[in-house]
Amino acid sequence: MTKQEISEIKKLFTPKNCSITRICGCYVDGEKNKKTELKQAFLALPEEEMFKYFELLRKTLSGTPGKNLMTLEFPLKSEEEGGPQEFLLRLRDSKLKDDELLEEFYDKIISNYEFVGNYLILVIHDVYDIPGRTSDGIDMEDASDEIYEYLLTCICPVELSKPGLSYDAAENTFRNRVRDWVVGLPECGFLFPAFTDRSCDLHSTLYYSKDPEDLKDNFVDELLGCPLPLSAGDQMETFQTLIEETLGEECGIEMVKSIHDKLTEMAEEHKEEPQPLVLAKNEVRSILADSGVSDEKLETFDKHYDETAGETTSLLASNVMNTRTFEVKTPDVVIKISPDRTDLIETRSIDGLECLVIRLDGGVVVNGITVRPGAGPEEEAKDSE
């Protein structure tokens, strides 16, 4: 799903646009016991509660595609009778009114979701009447010929509020605040089916994880039956290892600068596209070739890629390198440079030492103080002559 498609669904979670038919939930304690359940028509909720649920639902569709939000495809076996996708489809088609299916759904989550503490499982059913759009992207409210029926599930931690003092208006005094159990923002969740090309995509789901480095592989595998991509951190580490192993002794600052500049250029050209920039093996090879990597090194690239990332693995450009800054780091010094000014740094051998040279271009500020480049005892002595 693209950012625009995700935003379109998020906009439904407002009083004006809401068409949610039903909300159900199950409160689970730290021992995996069901403490209580809720089942009711969403629009029958008090307005204040409705707003709180809207916040949780919107958060489940928040984040960065490819990091917190991932469109996962169901393998064929998942869509067979008794498979995870087939089960979710039955749950959706029941409109959350089949108590037996709901209990089975909760049990699947409780059995596979690893979490220390209490949590709330929330699931909604909605039918979105997709408005038609003009060629310039304007919605036509009365030109709809398709509906999108979906479930959105989120799992939220439930924790004791912090201790403290509170003001008692009736007594006009301060008292020790009574601690109660508070529902926090979702740790994970998923939208089923996915909303792809502004249409229902039964073969995919959108998965959300608050922590992009803890995707809960076993939970996703058991509940959704979908393979997960490498996490954002793993993709960056994989790309870095691939560059180091492929380049070997050629892995110098200038070469990494060239690769960074090429990726920055590609990201700039792609920024208006709805889909994130994806790098398959051939794209990564082309980047290295265009950056000046020798043919001899490129001959070993395929082997290193297959061993490091996997033959069919693709990487997101936004995950493998920060194109918004260029960073040089030593054990004692960290230098960050604007990506369009990497020309300001170079390496030189001075008095037999390998040095990083930074050209001072424009004003220089040290600890908040504007300084004159070159000023110092020797410069002052010259000025006094």
- Which ranges are low-confidence, i.e. pLDDT below 50, for 5 or more consecutive residues? none
The gross shape turns out to be globular
Radius of gyration: 27 Å
Mean pLDDT: 88
- Note the total helix count: 12
Helix % is 25-40%
Count of β-strands: 22
β-strand amount: 25-35%
Structural class: alpha+beta
Measured distance between first and last alpha carbons: 70 Å
Main sheet record: 8 strands, antiparallel
Would you write up a description of this structure?
This protein has helices at 3-10, 47-59, 84-93, 99-112, 217-223, 232-247, 253-270, 281-290, 295-298, 301-308, 317-320, 377-384, and strands spanning 20-28, 34-41, 69-73, 118-130, 132-133, 139-140, 146-160, 165-168, 173-176, 181-183, 188-192, 194-196, 199-201, 204-209, 278-279, 315-316, 326-329, 334-337, 345-350, 353-358, 364-366, 369-371. With 385 residues, the chain is an alpha+beta fold. Strands 1, 2, 3, 4, 7, 10, 11 and 14 form an eight-stranded antiparallel beta sheet that branches.
